[in-house]
Amino acid sequence: MRDCLIERGYEVVRGAGSKGADLIAGKAGKTYAIEVKNTKTIWSGFGPARRKEMRRMCKSAGWIGVLVHFAPGETKPTIAFENVWPD
Question: Angle at Cα 1 formed by Cα 79 and Cα 9, nearest 5°?
Answer without folding.
Answer: 95
